[in-house]
Write a structure and sequence with these properties.
alpha+beta, Beta-lactamase, 2 domains, 8-stranded antiparallel sheet, two-stranded antiparallel ribbon, globular, 359 residues
Amino acid sequence: MNRLAALLLLVSATSVIGCDRGSDEQPTPATERYPQAAAQDVDAQALDRARTLIAGNPYVRCLLVERNGVLVMEEYFNGSDENVFFDVRSITKSVMSALVGIAIERGAIRSLDQTVGEILDPVVPELEPKKRAISLRHLLTMTSGLPWRELNSVEQDYSAWVSSPDPLRWILDRPLDHEPGSFWHYNTGASHITSAILTEATGQSARAFAQDQLFGPLDSVVGNWPADPRGYNYGGHGISLQARTLVRFGRLFLDGGTFHGRQVVPASWVREATATHWSTNNAMPWGSGYGYFFWTDHDARTGLDYYFATGYGGQFVVNVPAANATIVATTAWSGVPNAGANWSLVMGTIVQTVLPGLR
């Protein structure tokens, strides 16, 4: 979806939503609804406007805002609550980024320059030399050179890939479109290769490694995370997490990879993963740059840089380092009409309404 189309969808979506209060109900003042906002220098009125913008959408599930480690806003919609595990789609990729950083720190993976051939030859033998030379760095930056139709494409590869008897082999059997490391192209299929590499290098499934090394230390639990027929958890989609876990994940990165004084993700990895390594050529709104499975951008209105994890249909963990803030949102996506409009509605609300409220 190009930027103009997404913005038009956002305007269309916001024009039909209403307030979540009944006409006879007296509205709760914003300062009472968000009593901790003022102490964290957050505009409670901005939070209330954000809630109003998305509350009438039947697919939005939550919106949480944390600043300085204080949860100033925690809203759930349409029957959701803090106990629900949300399938957050491509936020899975950003989780995989953290797992790779941990695996490198622990010595299970030598470096980002290790290649598909070095690690996966035993499970996908006889790959051509250029594919064997695809590195973890290429995978994490979406520069593998493997073809994939997803963003801004009418035809889609996802269904054929995910339903194939061997998704790992399916994507690696595709003929290269570009030399690895020469061209940015968003590729969920190629991101799955990262999960296979992590599993083969650590001897644990991505889910088990994530629980032991990432979410366990965050006092959190991984919910469902589907796997391919080989048993590799999908590296590009499908992890299920609770909203507060997503906030902790964002806070972990804001705090340089530490949680309650424990270094969970290397600080150097946090810096590298969330830096801009490639331009996306505005492949989608509010994501002009790309790091290691994280999107990056700059908001001209507020002057704030931010980076984010995002998933299909409206899943977000948005970090604003200069404001020391994390914003989390989830949205239903399966069987939902206009999932792109819902994505734009929620991200537009975050950038255009929540960010200006971070005074």
